[in-house]
């Protein structure tokens, strides 16, 4: 069974209030030296069978339509061995 | 004239939207997200709330509900569609409107009576207002920050497609104080504040919201 991992992040120019809140909490807890935090999403997609190029292309289409919104987010996809 | 109001799992303001349609003199038809059928309505309101629990992104799952297929087709054909709050998010996710709505910059849910300026009074949903008329209607959102790239924002401004702009304060970090936008044709409008909560003196800050529903009824009669 193959696994495809899709990481979704807000585009750099889009403000990330959640990341800022996490950054603030890190500071309060004494975790020094953190310059910034951006929070994203990770999808782990298990496939039935092997990750053929066709099926990876399908997941790529899912990533650009449902899993991410191209107006505000970028995604990165990788097939895990 | 019949105005459809879609109920998604997690919609909250569908009842008030239907009521606003009736107060304005129209017939409200309740539509179910799981039916790929607009039941012959003349226009549609996508109401506020938290469709599908705001999972994934606000409006992202609702955008693929069965009702959206005929709705997107009808919107491209010129049928008036108003998305309020979560409905605005659904319209952006469906790419019927440009841009997107993101978490409020101050990270808190905001609920206030909000002053707005109606900057485009020629859409299907704003024609009963005067251009630059100021109105007060409730605003309540956690993810109401309107964002788009600079080129898109410039185009919206140039084409007069900013329907409403926040006055006094920017309540959620929306770029250029944008509270609502329309498509090129002016039949699809997305608005973050809630006109359906301001249609009767008893229950809102006034009746300034009624114009959205009166506008579409007038535009349908005229069509």
Automatic annotation (TrEMBL), chain A:
Oxidoreductase keyword on record: no
Reactions performed catalytically: N(2)-formyl-N(1)-(5-phospho-beta-D-ribosyl)glycinamide + L-glutamine + ATP + H2O = 2-formamido-N(1)-(5-O-phospho-beta-D-ribosyl)acetamidine + L-glutamate + ADP + phosphate + H(+)
InterPro entries: PurS (IPR003850), PurS-like_sf (IPR036604)
Metabolic or biological pathway, per its Swiss-Prot or TrEMBL entry: Purine metabolism; IMP biosynthesis via de novo pathway; 5-amino-1-(5-phospho-D-ribosyl)imidazole from N(2)-formyl-N(1)-(5-phospho-D-ribosyl)glycinamide: step 1/2
Gene3D superfamilies: Phosphoribosylformylglycinamidine synthase subunit PurS
The protein's enzyme class: ligase
One of the record's GO cellular component terms: cytoplasm
Molecular-function annotations in GO: ATP binding; phosphoribosylformylglycinamidine synthase activity
Keyword Ligase (UniProt): yes
Source organism, top-level taxon: Bacteria
Pfam families noted in UniProt: PurS (PF02700)
Sorted UniProt keywords: ATP-binding, Cytoplasm, Ligase, Nucleotide-binding, Purine biosynthesis
Any one GO BP annotation for this protein: 'de novo' IMP biosynthetic process
Subcellular location: Cytoplasm
EC number: 6.3.5.3
Subunit structure: Part of the FGAM synthase complex composed of 1 PurL, 1 PurQ and 2 PurS subunits.
UniProt family annotation: Belongs to the PurS family.
Function: Part of the phosphoribosylformylglycinamidine synthase complex involved in the purines biosynthetic pathway. Catalyzes the ATP-dependent conversion of formylglycinamide ribonucleotide (FGAR) and glutamine to yield formylglycinamidine ribonucleotide (FGAM) and glutamate. The FGAM synthase complex is composed of three subunits. PurQ produces an ammonia molecule by converting glutamine to glutamate. PurL transfers the ammonia molecule to FGAR to form FGAM in an ATP-dependent manner.
NCBIfam families given in the database record: phosphoribosylformylglycinamidine synthase subunit PurS, PRK05974.1
Name of this chain's protein: Phosphoribosylformylglycinamidine synthase subunit PurS
Originating organism: Phytoactinopolyspora halotolerans
Automatic annotation (TrEMBL), chain B:
Active site positions, chain numbering: 85 (nucleophile), 194, 196
Protein name: Phosphoribosylformylglycinamidine synthase subunit PurQ
Organism: Phytoactinopolyspora halotolerans
Principal subcellular localization: cytoplasm
HAMAP family on file: PurQ
Gene3D superfamilies in the record: 3.40.50.880
Gene from which this protein is expressed: purQ
One of the GO biological process terms: 'de novo' IMP biosynthetic process
GO CC term (a single one): cytoplasm
Keywords in alphabetical order: ATP-binding, Cytoplasm, Glutamine amidotransferase, Hydrolase, Ligase, Nucleotide-binding, Purine biosynthesis
EC number: 6.3.5.3, 3.5.1.2
Biological role: Part of the phosphoribosylformylglycinamidine synthase complex involved in the purines biosynthetic pathway. Catalyzes the ATP-dependent conversion of formylglycinamide ribonucleotide (FGAR) and glutamine to yield formylglycinamidine ribonucleotide (FGAM) and glutamate. The FGAM synthase complex is composed of three subunits. PurQ produces an ammonia molecule by converting glutamine to glutamate. PurL transfers the ammonia molecule to FGAR to form FGAM in an ATP-dependent manner.
Pfam families per UniProt: GATase_5
Superkingdom, taxonomy of origin: Bacteria
Subunit structure: Part of the FGAM synthase complex composed of 1 PurL, 1 PurQ and 2 PurS subunits.
């Amino acid at each position: 069974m193959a696994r495809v991992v899709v990481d979704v992040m807000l585009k750099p120019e889009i403000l990330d209030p959640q990341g800022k809140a996490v950054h603030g909490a890190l500071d309060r807890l004494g975790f020094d030296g953190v310059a910034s935090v951006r929070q994203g999403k990770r999808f782990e997609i298990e496939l039935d069978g092997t990750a053929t190029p066709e099926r990876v292309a399908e997941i790529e289409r899912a990533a650009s339509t449902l899993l991410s919104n191209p107006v505000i987010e970028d995604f990165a996809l990788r097939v895990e061995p | 004239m019949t105005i459809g109001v879609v109920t998604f799992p997690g919609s909250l303001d569908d009842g008030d939207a239907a009521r606003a349609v009736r107060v304005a003199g129209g017939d409200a038809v309740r539509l179910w997200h799981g039916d790929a059928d607009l039941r012959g309505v003349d226009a549609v309101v996508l109401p506020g709330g938290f469709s599908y629990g705001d999972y994934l992104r606000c409006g992202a799952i609702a955008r693929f509900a069965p009702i959206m297929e005929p709705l997107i087709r009808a919107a491209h054909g010129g049928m008036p569609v108003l998305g309020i709050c979560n409905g605005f998010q659904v319209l952006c996710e469906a790419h019927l409107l440009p841009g997107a709505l993101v978490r409020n910059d101050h990270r808190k849910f905001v609920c206030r009576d909000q002053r707005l300026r109606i900057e485009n009074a020629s859409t299907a949903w704003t024609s009963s207002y005067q251009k630059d008329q100021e109105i007060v209607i409730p605003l309540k959102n956690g993810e109401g920050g309107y964002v788009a790239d600079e080129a898109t924002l410039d185009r919206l401004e140039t084409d007069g497609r900013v329907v409403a702009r926040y006055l006094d304060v920017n309540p959620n970090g929306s770029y250029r104080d944008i509270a609502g936008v329309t498509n090129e044709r002016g039949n699809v409008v997305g608005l973050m504040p809630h006109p359906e909560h301001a249609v009767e003196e008893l229950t809102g800050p006034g009746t300034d919201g009624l114009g959205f529903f009166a506008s579409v009824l007038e535009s349908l009669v005229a069509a």
